[in-house]
Amino acid sequence: MKKQELRAIYKQKRKELTEDQILMLQEKIYQQIYDLDISDVKNVHLFLSMKKFKEIDTRPLIAYFRKMNKRVVVSKCNFKSTTLSHFYFDENTSLELNKFGVPEPVNAEQVSEEELDIVFVPMLISDAQKYRVGYGKGYYDRFLANCRKDAKIIGLNFFKPIKQIEDINKYDIALDKVIYSI
C-alpha cells in the first residue's frame, strides 16, 4: 500500500484504541526502551506527544532518561521552512502549543542535530525495511537527514510493521529500530 492509504488506515486504527488498550500498549513499549543499552548516550531526542492523536505518551520516557542522567531534547516546528529546531528540555523549560496543538519549548537552549545520540521518532506505521509513515509533512525526514550517521533512530508505534510501503522515495530514511506493541 501507499503512504496516503496507510496514513488513513492507521490514523483510524489508533483512533479506535481505548484508553485501557493504550496504557497496556505503552507499557510494552516503555519496557523495550528501558531494556536498551544507553550507557554511551548523552543526548536523547523525544517527541512531545499529542494526546488528541492518541500518540504514545513520552512523559514517562522523559522522566526515565532524566533519571538516567541523559539530556532530553525536544523540537519546535519552523512552519515556513517545514523544518525542526531542537532544544534541551529540562525542568525549567516552559511549553506552548503551536498552531497544530503540538507542545513546544519556549525558553530553552538550542541544540544541533549533530549532538543527538538517539532520536525517538513518532509514526503511524512502518514496514519490514524500517521505513515509516508519518503525518505527511516531511518534518522528520528533513530532520533525520541532518543527524549523525551513528545516531540511533528508533521509531515508536503501537502497531506491528507491515510488509512494505510501496512509495518509498529518496528522501525517506530507514530507522535503525522499530519498537512496537501489537
UniProtKB/TrEMBL annotation:
User: For binding ATP, which residues are annotated in this chain's numbering?
Assistant: K3, Q4, E5, L6, R7, R132, V133, G134, Y135, G136, K137, G138, Y139, Y140
Q: Which family does it belong to?
A: Belongs to the 5-formyltetrahydrofolate cyclo-ligase family.
A single Gene Ontology MF term assigned here is: ATP binding
Name it: 5-formyltetrahydrofolate cyclo-ligase
* Record keywords: ATP-binding, Ligase, Magnesium, Metal-binding, Nucleotide-binding
Which cofactors is this protein said to need?
Mg(2+)
- Return the broad EC class: ligase
The protein's annotated catalytic reaction(s) are: (6S)-5-formyl-5,6,7,8-tetrahydrofolate + ATP = (6R)-5,10-methenyltetrahydrofolate + ADP + phosphate
Q: Which InterPro entries match?
A: FTHF_cligase, FTHF_cligase-like_sf, NagB/RpiA_transferase-like
In the Enzyme Commission scheme, what number(s) does this protein have?
Answer: 6.3.3.2
SUPFAM superfamilies on file: NagB/RpiA/CoA transferase-like
Query: NCBIfam families from the entry?
Result: MTHFS_bact (TIGR02727)
